[in-house]
Amino acid sequence: MTDWVIGVDVGGTFTDFSARNKKDHHIQVHKRPSTPDDPSRAILEGLRELLDIADIDGAEIARIAHGTTVATNALLQRRGAEIGVVTTKGFRDLLEIGRQVRPKIYDLQTDAPPPLALRQNRLEISERIGAEGEVVSALEMADVEALINEVRSLDGVESIAVCTLFSFLNPTHEQLIAKALRNAFPGVVVSVSSDVQPEFREYERFSTTVINAFLQPEVSRYMDKLSRALGNVAPNAKLGIFQSSGGLMSVGKATEFPVRTALSGPAAGAVGAAAAGAASGISDIVTLDMGGTSTDVCLIRNGKTEIANMRDIAGFRIRLPMVDIHTVGAGGGSIAHIGSDGLMKVGPESAGAVPGPACYGHGGVLPTVSDANVVLGRLPEALAGGLCLDKEKAFQAIERIAKPLGLSVTATALGIAGIVTSNMTRAIRAVSTEKGHDPRNFVLMPFGGAGGLHATDVAKSLGLSRVIVPNSPGILCADGLIESDLQENFVATSRARMNEDLIAVKEALARLDAQADKWIVSETDSASPAQKNASVDMRYVGQNYELPVMIENAQSSPQLPDRETLIEGFFAAHLRSYGYVDRDAPVEVMNVRLKAVAPLGQAMAQPESPKGPPTPDVIQDVWFSADAPLSTPVYQREVLPIGTTLTGPAIIAQFDATTCVPPDATVTVDAALNLIVELQDA
Question: How high is the pLDDT of residue 74?
């Protein structure tokens, strides 16, 4: 019997595992240090350890869902393929010109990152599709042959991006070029913009396709290696790869479109947070995913994660549906340092997994957020995997920065905690206040190994009165992978003013519906009925960017609602985002989108309530302010049964995370085994 479903999330410091049994609902979690040189090594070693711990036969695993950072790291480190680009004559420099926006508006010295394709590798071909999809200049086969000869002269090219003008309206030329290149160079992968993201805006479409080409060889090798290795450990398991939009895709799709995995891991955390909140009847959540290297924040409204259709990652523009996550360099391993202005800063540089914070005892000597928490007494003596923390080394590390500042070690540690709190607070405002949402209407959910240590400070700074800590916060991203369904997103550009006939928009939606039906047949289990949800991108005529308007009550074949319903939906979205509406200005549709979701029949999480009694392990001094330390009980979470209520101060330690409860708060274990922290002076 294949009864087990396993989620595997690779982070910068730890690789997390969550396993659920679909039959008896048994849960098993596991963590092990990541192996940045080869992420698959930590996955395989950790999976074998998990199978031993839980006494699971590898043949019993039905599905493995994987959140990967391979694409993200390749972009950050520019460690990808040598690529070529083929584009319409006269447009080879479009990637370099971009949007002419400075990376840092007040820094005149900082340049945008150079394009991923060298200029000599960006080739042009004589052809032209017009703005209505018409052929302005035909593609001649003689020009295609000349292009192939040019490609032969390029040195070491592993991948080619084909990006021609207006191919999102008429992909004929692009597809002919791609076919000729694949025939001439069978060992070279070809990414085509009309396949990657057939949507208007040349620069964004070109950039996304080039990134896909840059990542494809690296990610393909990784996926192939991982698939073969997992096949030996779990021969019956289907491997699903998590994509940035919040759902799983097949290994084949991930190999073809690796750009979709650019935010794979953080997006899984948002899905896990929505599921954990639903178990406690909470649907409006601000997430705080604080790991070893960074913190990711996301807004969840009515149980649904917010989606953005454009993001910059490592300075490169990606135009794809992605969970709207804001990331800051604020993690447990973030290094504190003195800036050129003489003031203390925290991050974005991180000690990472190797050597890690000084308190890990693995050779790190620089002061980090984790070292500050050790000095303040907020961390237990041991972390996941039995890692014992060295308090003396933490003191020595903080002292390195305390002496130049003329502060005590404790005051410096409190300063580090305060700065990292401010960094995370600004990140949350970016996904809430700056997008028309009052964060006080939401509940803060911290997760990741370090989220619970700083959550109440962040909540107070935002005016939030409640914090919910999930049952296994340190592995919530892995939980989110288990909660995820198969998903595919489709888009078509169809521009039409709302005072005109919308026949073209309806036809575009019908084409997307047909594409979704083909995907359902080829990629999903026919026994699991797929769901379809559609939306349209709308804007005022003359505006530069659009707002998504959901089509409510989408059935198996979504239908475009009447004109008045669409316009009112746009007005509501515009009012929320910008604070005003002009009901007399003309409105237009730009894109039609459709998301197909195939439920996978997730294994339900039914953790057993601990038996108690809820008694502390030790009492230790913890610094919550500069006045004096407070005697604080340290509880193990596995002894806190449902209904337990504690009054702060308290430290709640568990296998995968630590939660710090200040003296002006109470914490209750609810029926879902989530911790509900109520702040008295928020």
Answer: 85
**pLDDT tens, position by position, 39-63:** 899 999 999 999 999 999 989 998 9
**pLDDT value of residue 32:** 86
The verdict on pTM exceeding 0.85 is: yes
Q: Domain extents for the chain?
A: 4-75+220-264, 78-218, 486-598, 618-679
Does pLDDT of 518 surpass 60? yes
Which H helix or E strand runs over 547? strand 547-550
* Class level of CATH domain 486-598: alpha beta
Cα-Cα-Cα-Cα torsion 448, 452, 456, 462, nearest 10 degrees, comes to 0
Residues 6+ apart with CB under 8 A from 107: none
* Burial (Cβ within 10 Å: 0-12, 13-18, ≥19) of residue 363: exposed
Task: Give the confidence band of 160 by pLDDT, cuts at 50, 70, 90.
Answer: very high
More confident of the two residues 27 and 503: 503
State mean pLDDT over 178-183: 97
The secondary structure element, H or E, covering residue 217 is helix 202-233
Half-sphere exposure of 534 (CA within 13 A, CB side): 25
Domain 4-75+220-264 architecture: 2-Layer Sandwich (3.30)
> What is the length of the chain?
682
Q: Under CATH, which number does the domain 78-218 receive?
A: 3.40.50
Residue 538 φ then ψ, to 5°: -130, 160
Q: Which two tokens stand for residue 389?
A: 């923390």
- Name the token pair of 320: 């794809």
Conformation bin of residue 418: beta by default, left when phi > 0, alpha when psi is -120 to 50: alpha
Tokens of 448: 């990741």
